[in-house]
Amino acid sequence: MAVMRILAALITAASVLWSVSQPARSEVTPAEQGGARPGDGNHFSPLDQLTPANASHLKLYAAFPTGSRGAHSGAPLVMGNMLVVLTPFPHVLYALDLRKAKPEVAWRYEPASRGMAAGLTCCGTGGPVSYGNHLYFNTVDGRTIALDPASGAVLWDVQAADPALGETLTGAPVIARGQVVLGNAGDDFGARGWITARSATTGAALWKHYSTGPDAEVGIGPGFAPPYPTDRAVDRGITTWPPSAWQHGGGGVSGPILWDASAGLLFHGTGHPAPWNPDQRNGDNRWTSGLFARDVTTGEARWFVPVNPHDLYALGSTSALLLVERDWRGGPAPLLIHPDGNGHVYVLDRRTGKVLSAEPFIPVNATKGFDLAAGALVRDPAKAIRSGATTRGICPARPGATGAGAAYSPRTGLLYIPVRRACMDMEARDTTFMPGTAFTGGNLRLSPAPGLSAGALVGWDIAAGHAVWEQAEPLPVEGGALATAGGLVFYGTTDGFFKALDAGNGVELWHFRGSSGIVGQPISYLGPDGRQYVAVLAGLGGVPGSASGREIDMRDATAANGQAQALRALPPRADGGGMLYIFALP
Amino acid sequence: MTALRCAALVVLALAGCKQEERAMRLDPPIAEAMDAVALMPDGIGGRPPEVHVAMGNPYRGNAYQISQGKRLYEWFNCRGCHADGGGGSGPALMDGWWRYGPDLVSIYVSIRDGRPNGMPPFRDRLTPEQIWQLTGYIQMMGAYSASAAAPGRNDRMFSRPSENRAPAAAPAPGQP
Fold first, then answer.
1. Which residues are within 8 A (CB) of A56 and not within 5 positions of it... i.e. 6 or more apart?
2. Scanning every residue of chain A, which has its alpha carbon at the shortest distance from the alpha carbon of B174?
3. Which is nearest to A561 in space by CA: B174, B76, B87?
4. What's the topology of domain B26-53+80-147?
5. Domain ranges (residues) in chain A
6. Three-class secondary structure of residue A461 per DSSP
7. Which CA distances in Å does A110 have to A86, A89, A91, A93, A489?
């Protein structure tokens, strides 16, 4: 109960949601948070003690080994005087007491795990989230668990996803209006995508909607108003597929789910269609690889935007999403910003789903610009994929030009995008769906984009639709970015650096070299002592993007979904195992 | 002259057919006996079936059986998890490092029964003979010395040195 009273820390992880409908249960008000709304995906901290003037003095304050050698892709969570860390599968949840001179383990919780799920996942876990006096997290093997943060006692524990169907849970749940909202991963295994809501108090199922199939199951009814008229036809989730292919057609909801309390809407992306081989799924493959707006209480769809229809390169659209309030070409507009794996920053009017702009943030050759009237990218036929053939030099490469959490600072008006710059050769092969095995039908071979570093953090001017600066990185940036009101941007790199840039001009002000590569999302919080801290999980787990990351043989260019070749430069020293790092001024 | 050359080619081609024993289909009792591996209590190593020994280890180092194994490897979605031997959501199979041991029985059992940390069982999808063909292919893929029986060419995307010239010599997982 102490936790209820002392929610002094300011929490900036995207996965944390503050719900206006339950003000009595949380004593953190928007004013105390400096105007930031933790559920908006902005990864913006209102804290301003750390600035470009003092960032160079940042020091390691504490390091806590997590005991896991996997990919630490989530964000730590600060809740009251506690910092909570979820380690990769098989998970351990640690609660650290921040009141001690150095963080100490207050309790740990280790859920029983189904090892079978280890073969079904690509890349880690979301973080824990808090709501009122509960703590929630998803496990890769498909469970959603609610705990009492004071003791670690289990309040409820449900099997929300079924690994036997290829389903896993790799993202963080989101709390919206008394509901825990979560979606599945499993596109690479032919799992049919869904998003579901459960009661935050009991875990009871409330609603569930799919990304493929009949309208009733997708949540398409009278309230559905898609911005592009073709989607008004009936049962597009069936008619845009070969017979029955939608049943194992992917479209998982493995990325961020945002919650706009004032509009009562949820926003989420859908994953790529299955299999990768596009010739085995002729048609537009609705409702995969696009963006949905859904009503929070019923889950019914309000609109859908097809970002990568008939997704040739199996990119999906589950990368970063941000709710941004700012002027757009003459007037204030509620925007939804989405840097997509296809290399374009989508700016949408989130009331209607209309795409306002989609400019490329990396060199792209798979498509030739955006057709605003049609709401789609124009494809280059030279980069088409045909079963039995290999198409060379496709940019960007799977899994996409960006994946991790982008950040937005209302102070600078800039978007900070973690970027991968790779191209690929892709060979499509006919494949058969067998439950529990991979349903891909593609061989990939990646290499860094010609003439460019393989990664970057890009500072992007949303209004102008172009980059204003970039910080080049030798390897793809797989971790998220954090912007702070003090004028800094923090992010970690695959080769093990944690950096602070000047949020205005992108100049590097400070870095720390850890023992492991970073694929996690940094956060900033105010400690019980009133000082600003920055925390991040390090831990690469070998080659990014594969569960067996440290057992990859780099001589096979197709290993780890084709990343082996692009990542041959990966320094082995950047794999020292999981570590929580906390930084502060001395 | 041309006729002579042609004749020579025909003779050569026919000789090629004789090179190796290719049992197209096993007798049912043999097929069943093929599944009788004696497994150690730890579920890792063991003894191959008697009939296997009696048949003179037909799946080790037999080019035909290995190439069948290579086909099955793609058809049954092993590639989706293990890539072309270099690994993905499943561990690399070509690096010479084994979670469960390099011997035929261990590999056979891994495929037939699955393994607890994410390897699905293929017992209901493949016949014992097919599992042995795969076993032979995978053992060769992770062997420490090159094998003349290993496939020398690929009919698909070039991803790595062909099996017959890629003995396993990768550093220990997670090591430089």
1. A509, A510
2. A550
3. B87
4. Cytochrome Bc1 Complex; Chain D, domain 2 (1.10.760)
5. 2-584
6. strand
7. 10, 10, 6, 6, 33
Amino acid identity, position A352: T
Contact list, A557 vs chain B (CB under 8 Å): 84, 86, 158-160
Cβ count near B87 (within 10 Å): 31
CATH class of the domain at A2-584: mainly beta
Strands A455-461 and A488-492: unpaired
As a whole number of angstroms, the distance between CA A429 and CA A279 comes to 9
Q: What is the pLDDT along chain A (586 residues), one digit of tens a residue?
A: 343 333 333 333 333 333 333 333 333 333 333 334 557 999 999 999 999 999 999 999 999 999 998 899 989 999 999 999 999 999 999 999 999 988 999 999 999 999 999 888 766 788 999 998 899 999 999 999 999 999 999 999 999 999 999 999 999 999 999 999 999 999 999 999 999 999 999 999 999 999 999 999 999 999 999 998 899 999 999 999 999 999 999 999 999 999 999 999 999 999 999 999 999 999 999 999 999 999 999 999 999 999 999 999 999 999 999 999 999 988 889 999 999 999 999 999 999 999 999 999 999 999 999 998 888 999 999 999 999 999 999 999 999 999 999 999 999 999 999 999 999 999 999 999 999 999 999 999 999 899 999 999 999 999 999 999 999 999 999 999 999 999 999 999 999 999 999 999 999 999 999 989 999 999 999 999 999 999 999 998 878 767 677 788 888 888 888 888 777 767 665 677 899 999 999 9
d(CA A182, CA A170): 10
3-state SS, residue A5: helix
Contact A552/B87, CB-based, under 8 Å?
yes
A115:B160 CB<8 A: no
Dihedrals phi, psi of A69, to nearest 5 degrees: -105, 10
CA distance A231 to A263: 23
- Rounded alpha-carbon distances, angstroms, from residue A369 to A311, A326, A361, A378: 16, 25, 12, 6
Euclidean distance between the first and the last CA atom of chain B, given in angstroms as a whole number: 58
Q: Cα(A438)–Cα(A415) distance, rounded to whole angstroms? A: 35
Question: By CA distance, what is A555's nearest residue in B?
Answer: B160
Residues with Cβ within 8 Å of residue A276, at least 6 apart in sequence: A313, A314, A398, A426, A428, A440, A441, A442
Contact in structure between A535 and A11 (CB atoms under 8 Å): no
Q: Do A559 and B83 touch (CB under 8 A)?
A: yes
Rounded to 10 deg, the angle between the B128-141 and B63-75 helix axes is: 100
The answer to whether residues A86 and A67 touch, using CB atoms and an 8 Å cutoff, is no
Test mutation, A427, A548, A565, A570, chain B, max B CBs within 10 A: A548
Radius of gyration of chain B (CA): 18
Cβ of A551 under 8 Å from any chain B Cβ? Answer: yes
Which whole-number Å values give the CA distances from A258 to A181, A218, A253, A293, A496, in the listed order?
10, 18, 12, 9, 29
Which secondary structure element, helix H or strand E, spans residue B139, and what is its range?
A: helix B128-141
Q: Could you tell me if A511 lies within 8 Å of chain B, comparing CB atoms?
A: no
Residue A542 touches partner B, C-beta closer than 8 Å: yes
Shortest distance, CA A435 to any CA of chain B (angstroms): 10
Strand pairing category for A44-45 and A481-484: parallel
Interface of B with A (CB under 8 A): 74-77, 79-81, 83-92, 94-95, 97, 116-120, 125, 156-161, 166, 170, 173-176
For residue B113, give the DSSP letter: H
Furthest CA-CA distance within chain B: 66
